[in-house]
Write a structure and sequence with these properties.
alpha/beta, globular, single chain
Length: 277
């Protein structure tokens, strides 16, 4: 049975999961996680995320080059991404371009030359998303305004600002551009006051939930490996912060993911169609 919650960002193919990604997805489904979106991080794992999404009935995937992998990436990888997306457009489980963006938290990524390369890869991947009409899954660590600047220059059909940790003004700027904001384990930490205020006060229609597993573990797991099985408990805490019923938070945040990832909505709809006689 399809569950209520949707994990909009989970690296289920990560080495930390070994060969257990499939069984973890199944256990998450038993706990009420209806869908899991698995973003790629480099051309080397394009095939892995697609294969994993096809092995699990509650998984979909995205293709992209993560900013942390940009230092090792070649210009030719952008051509590989474009070709891979073109080939996968017939695959109903491809739902977005991602994970892409900018990271100015990791010290070696802040050097001028690497910042320029990051920006180049981000812009070129936005163009691929634009050209294929796909939403994007954005990584924006210490880079919210620069991420927004490029989004205003290269128009894409919305997406998700993953692990959002910006200001209210930045949140509104993403919303105005057709984006949802991803919240996960970080909001479970009592000291994350600004993040908790945002999670409590933003319109629920702007919020999606995520685990970013195996990273971004909630407070009760930190620093252990995160898992999509934690999503219902993270969602319950969000509901408590907002003073809303967990069932409403599950329903609305899941609907938000489907609204911003229309190919996932189509896939979810197809999954509920009765087999023709």
């Amino acid at each position: 049975m399809t569950g209520m919650w949707t994990d909009s960002h989970c690296h289920l193919d990560a080495p930390e999961f070994g060969a257990d990604g499939g069984s973890i997805a199944q256990r998450a489904a038993q706990l009420g996680v209806g869908w899991i979106v698995i973003p790629a991080v480099a051309t080397a794992n394009f095939a892995a995320v697609a294969a994993l999404a096809h092995r699990q009935s509650n998984c979909a995937y995205a293709l992209g080059i993560h900013p942390i992998f940009v230092p090792q990436a070649q210009e030719s990888d952008l051509a590989v991404l474009r070709q891979s997306v073109a080939a996968a457009m017939a695959d109903s489980r491809l739902v977005a371009i991602g994970e892409i963006g900018l990271d100015f938290f990791v010290p070696e990524l802040k050097a001028a030359a690497m910042a320029e390369k990051q920006t180049h890869f981000y812009r070129e991947q936005l163009k691929i998303a634009r050209d294929f009409g796909l939403p994007v899954l954005l990584h924006a660590r210490r880079a919210q305004d620069l991420i927004l600047k490029q989004l205003r220059a290269i128009s894409v059909p919305g997406g998700i600002a993953h692990a959002f940790n910006g200001s209210l003004q930045q949140a509104q700027a993403f919303i105005d551009l057709g984006f949802k904001l991803g919240f996960g384990g970080a909001l479970t930490f009592p000291r994350a006051l600004q993040l908790r205020r945002l999670a409590a006060n933003l319109p629920l229609e702007a919020i999606v939930l995520e685990t970013d597993a195996p990273d971004m573990a909630p407070v009760w797991l930190h620093p252990a490996r995160n898992s999509p099985q934690q999503l219902p408990r993270i969602g319950q805490l969000l509901a408590e912060l907002r003073g809303q019923a967990a069932s409403d938070v599950a329903r609305i945040t899941s609907a938000n993911v489907l609204a911003v990832l229309p190919r996932l909505a189509h896939l979810a709809g197809a999954a509920h169609l009765p087999e023709s006689l």
